[in-house]
Structure formats: C-alpha cells, structure tokens
Design a protein that fits this description.
This protein has about 375 residues and is an alpha/beta fold. It is built from 13 helices and 12 strands. A 7-stranded mixed beta sheet has the order 1-7-6-5-4-2-3, with helices on both faces. The protein has a 5-stranded mixed beta sheet with strand order 8-9-12-11-10, with helices on one face. Helix 2 packs parallel to helix 8, helix 3 packs parallel to helix 4 and helix 11 packs across helix 13. It is globular. The chain binds pyridoxal-5'-phosphate (PLP).
C-alpha cells in the first residue's frame, strides 16, 4: 500500500517500536559511543559520528518523504551543501543558478573555487543551459523557486539535459519542502534541504539534509559524513522529527495565508511588484502547477523606495524582522543586508535584489492579524510621508 505524505510524516512503513518499550515518540539516544557485546562483535552501532539511532530514524523519514534511497542528516543546510560539494574534484565545473541562497553563493565563491572547482552562474529557468556544458562539467545545481527572486525552473526538462550530458542534477528543495515538491521523482539525482526551515518548522533548530536515489552517491556521502563529521546531534534530530509530524498542516496553512497576503500586496499603491508563484501572473505558475503540489509560502516584493522598505522593517511587531524562513512565525527579511549581504553588489543587482526588495516567510498566524498589521504599517508610513 502506498501511504500519503501526511502519513509518511508520522509513520515509517516498516515501523517497529517494540524495541523502544512502544514509545510513540522516537527516543533520543544521547550517546557518543556503544559498548560491544564481545570481541569482533557490534550492536550495529559503534560511534555516533557514524551511526546514531535517533539520527538514523530521522534520515529514514526524510528519505521516505523525498522518495529517496538514502538521506543524510547534517548540522545545518550549509553543512549539507558543503558535504555534497566534496563529491567534486579540482578541475570540475558546475553550472549553478545565478539567484541562490546567499550562503550557497558564498560557499561556492570562497571555498569551492579555492578547491579548484569552477562555476557558470546562469539563470537556469530561462538561459540555454546546454550552451554552458563543457568537457569537465559534472553537475547542475538549482533552486526552484529561487531565493529570493522566486524563479521557477522546469526540473524534468533540465533533468533531460543533465542525463544527456551525464551530469548530476542537484536541487535545493528548501522553499517548498517535500510536502509540495519531490525533485527526485522529476529526474534529479540529489536533493538538498535546509531542515532549519519548513522541516523543523519552529525557528528553533538548525539542520540540513542531502538525499539521493543513487546507491553509488549514497556510498560516497556515507564515507564523507563519517570522515568530516558534521552529522546532526541526537536531540536536534528529535526536534526535527517532531517538527515533521505537523509538516502537512503547517504547509497548507502557511500557503493559504501567503496567497491572501500576496493578493493584498498586489492592491497596494506603494508595492511596485509582488513575486509569488501562486499568482497566475507569475511566469513560472504553469510549471509550478505541473511539477509541484503547491506554491509555498514565500513572497518577495518590491516597494516604491528604500525608505519605504526600511520603515516597514522598523514598524512591524507581530511580523518579526529576522533572517530565516519556513517557521510557524511570520518573518520579514531585507535580503540586501541580511541573507544576500555577502553576494557581490553587481550580482545582487543583476539578480534584481535592490534596496527596496523585501521577503516575507508567511507563518501560520491568523491571516487577518497579519494583514491587519501590514495595513496599519502602510497607513502610518503614508501619513509620515505627507508630513
Ligand atoms: C537557509 C537556507 C540554506 C542554508 O541552510 P542553514 O540551515 O541556514 O545552514 C540553504 N538553502 C536555502 C534555500 C536556504 O533557505
């Protein structure tokens, strides 16, 4: 029987908790090491950098949610991406989205390039990706929708190009979570998550995941996590497991709030652009409908001036001015000085991130309270302008 994704958030197919006294909440194995029953014998667990039952349980849940063969839990999203990058060697070339999470751009520019890997940063959603493939190209790395400009790439179409040239297709699926999108089903080879965001969902824990459906890649990644050591701690693994239990209802509520806020923003004179893939005016709307089960809850918008943007950030209270996304609390971010501060100014501007760009991660509060606050804040700014 194929179980639905909401059930998968709560139950593994081959679940057996009799070894844990029937505990419904998976136990936290807070141990660094494991005693051996005898010489040359092992319980299957030797040392927590290699194996920990709590982390392993979380990894099985994540693999099930993404329809992967294996998932690895890391101490943050960046630790996951850094581990994944160890699959490549000096001389390798990667094609990566130009608009990406700022930390990924920083890692590629400052660490991967130092290690002899080169990059073509292009807009995979609308540029001729094949044109950039050369002899040493090994992979294509994308986000869809991208952070923060929300460009949508057709994963299945890109995977055809990847397969034709024997390249890995790597998709950072953080913005939609496995609840709304499963890139491996669309032909991707590796999926990345910042578990800090929707999977954890409560703005309280950092985590990251690398998921694959290829046995050869899984084997390499297992060697790398054992060797480099950034596996997720047992307690943090448990917090993410707990967050995942409500992934479905959180995603649905956040998305419906986001849709209403996006529509409200569209009606504001001071808002010059609303970028939300759930609006049928978004260029990626049709692709999203085909390849995802929802549109997510991230909205990027432009206001009339830098001053207007800063005033919003000064005045919001219920909506909190903070980095990060994907939690139950609504957060507003200023990409130019926060998430994308380390992205060189010319690239930032080429991507369309300006000093009047704001990004909202919509949470699960009563949407009337969220829109109520935005209304009050906008009205107050207009009043101050007239003074
Ligand atoms: C936050 C984020 C990351 C990095 O994850 P951390 O858990 O903060 O290390 C990577 N990709 C995307 C799309 C993100 O939003």
């Amino acid at each position: 029987m194929k179980t639905g994704i909401e059930t998968k958030c709560l139950h593994l197919e081959q679940e057996n908790n009799s070894g844990h006294f029937g505990a419904v909440s998976f136990p936290i194995y807070q141990t660094a090491t494991y005693a051996h029953p005898g010489v040359g014998m092992s319980t299957g667990y030797d040392y927590s950098r290699l194996q920990n039952p709590t982390r392993e349980h979380l990894e099985k849940v994540i693999a099930a949610l993404e329809n992967g063969l294996d998932a690895l839990a890391l101490s943050s999203g960046m630790a996951a991406i850094a581990l994944m990058m160890e699959l490549f060697h000096p001389g390798d070339h990667l094609i990566v989205d130009a608009d990406l999470y700022g930390g990924s751009i920083r890692l590629f520019k400052n660490i991967s390039e130092k290690n002899g890997i080169t990059f073509s940063n292009i807009d995979c959603y609308n540029e001729d990706v094949e044109f950039f493939v050369s002899e040493n190209t090994k992979a294509i790395y994308i986000e869809t929708p991208t952070n923060p400009m929300m460009h949508v790439t057709d994963i299945a179409a890109l995977s055809k190009i990847a397969k034709k040239h024997n390249l890995l297709l790597i998709v950072d699926n953080t913005f939609l979570s496995p609840y709304f999108q499963n890139p491996l089903d669309l032909g991707a080879d590796i999926v990345i998550h910042s578990g800090t965001k929707y999977l954890g969902g409560h703005n309280d824990t950092l985590a990251g995941f690398v998921i694959t459906n290829r046995a050869d890649i899984s084997e390499k990644l297992r060697f790398l996590i054992k060797t480099t050591g950034a596996g997720l701690a047992p307690f943090d693994s448990w917090l993410i497991l707990r967050g995942i239990k409500t992934l479905g209802i959180r995603m649905e509520k956040a998305q419906s709030n986001a849709m209403e806020i996006a529509r409200w923003l569209c009606g504001q004179k001071a808002v010059t652009q609303v970028i939300y893939p759930g609006l049928d005016t978004h260029p990626g709307y049709e692709i999203m409908k085909r390849q995802a089960r929802g549109f997510g809850a991230m909205i990027t918008f432009q206001v009339e001036s830098k001053e207007f943007a800063l005033s919003i950030l000064e005045k919001v209270r219920l909506i909190q001015f903070a980095e990060s996304l994907g939690g139950v609390e609504t957060l507003i971010t200023y990409p130019t000085t926060q998430t994308h501060a380390d992205v060189p100014k010319d690239i930032r501007e080429k991507n369309g991130i300006t000093e009047s760009t704001l990004r909202i991660s919509v949470g699960i509060e009563d949407v009337n309270d969220l829109i109520g606050e935005l209304k009050a804040v906008f009205a107050e700014i207009e009043k101050e302008k007239r003074k």
